[in-house]
């Protein structure tokens, strides 16, 4: 057999395989695809739903009114989004899912694969904190501002490595409580953070909130748990209020008096879990 004939046979076999896959996909109920996605999310204590959705060829879903939730309530809603399974990696035995979504002026794109015990790449641009229900439904916080975030993580099901980078502008946070203790209500011009993941442990290399009257800094580690919300915290939060800001929220700072380290500097150990942080 000549090389040209061999190439034609191989090309025909690949085309037939792809046609078979596409025909098979065409008869998979869309609810079955969503159920398969939710089985994967269940490992992290999460679930995905949509107001209306249909198939996105070659293998995926697209729709409106998407909601990502935990057992404590909605975490993120998207006006519209698509979730697709990539065919080429699938032929190599690798599951790769791409997600594209939008809500208001914000955009989200992400790719997750089963390679290297699970990898994730995510990019968030221009997302309004007011459109993230987690703050009100789970944390009980009123939040405003625009956030950008990038993440690259490998080894999600083991000793992961990578980073999560955060940048936000015009942030306003009110009603924050750790346990029963309130934190100061404040507006911040900039919020910047970098979480570096090594050996499965997330280390906060830098996380700062810069406001006119209050400067906040976080440092420490987040240890992997059975799910993301159950990950234990070993963090320290520093509050550095200016005198006039401290005077305006005197009652809150009286409740924090035991954490006063030096004049104008509060150092608060944070324990508990990522889903339920507590002051030590």
Portion of residues in beta strands equals: over 45%
In terms of quaternary structure, the protein is single chain
**Mean pLDDT level:** 82
Number of domains: 2
Task: Walk me through what this model shows.
There is one protein chain. This protein is of the alpha+beta class and 280 residues long. The protein folds into two domains: 30-136, no CATH class; 159-280. Helices cover 21% and strands 52% of the residues. It is built from six helices and 18 strands. It has helices at residues 3-26, 30-41, 87-91, 134-138, 243-248, 250-255; strands at 46-49, 52-55, 60-70, 73-85, 96-103, 106-113, 119-128, 142-154, 161-174, 177-178, 181-182, 186-198, 201-211, 214-222, 233-241, 260-262, 265-272, 277-279. The chain has a 16-stranded antiparallel β-sheet that branches. The chain has a two-stranded antiparallel ribbon with strand order 10-11. A hairpin with a 2-residue loop joins strand 10 (177-178) and strand 11 (181-182). The termini are far apart.
């Amino acid at each position: 057999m000549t090389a040209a004939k061999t190439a034609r046979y191989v090309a025909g076999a690949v085309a037939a395989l792809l046609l078979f896959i596409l025909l098979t996909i065409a008869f998979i109920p869309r609810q079955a695809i969503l159920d398969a996605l939710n089985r994967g999310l269940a490992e992290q204590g999460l679930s995905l739903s949509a107001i209306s959705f249909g198939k996105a060829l070659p293998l995926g879903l697209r729709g409106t009114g998407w909601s990502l939730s935990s057992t404590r309530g909605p975490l993120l809603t998207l006006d519209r989004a698509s979730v697709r399974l990539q065919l080429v990696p699938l032929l190599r035995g690798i599951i790769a899912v791409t997600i594209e979504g939008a809500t208001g002026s914000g955009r989200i794109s992400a790719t997750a694969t089963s390679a290297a015990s699970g990898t994730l790449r995510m990019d968030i641009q221009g997302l309004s904190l007011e459109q993230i229900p987690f703050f009100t439904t789970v944390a009980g916080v009123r939040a405003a501002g625009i956030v950008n975030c990038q993440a690259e993580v490998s080894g999600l099901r083991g000793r992961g490595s990578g980073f999560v980078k955060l940048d936000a502008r015009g942030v306003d946070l009110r009603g924050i409580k750790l346990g029963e203790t309130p934190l100061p209500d404040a507006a911040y011009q900039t919020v910047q953070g970098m979480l570096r993941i090594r050996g499965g442990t997330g280390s906060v290399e830098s996380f700062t909130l810069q406001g006119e009257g209050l400067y906040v800094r976080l440092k420490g580690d987040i240890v992997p748990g059975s799910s993301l919300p159950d990950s234990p915290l070993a963090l320290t939060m520093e509050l550095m209020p200016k005198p006039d800001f401290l005077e305006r929220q005197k009652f809150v700072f009286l409740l924090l008096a035991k954490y006063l380290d030096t004049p104008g500097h509060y150092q608060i150990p944070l324990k508990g879990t990522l889903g339920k942080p507590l002051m030590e």
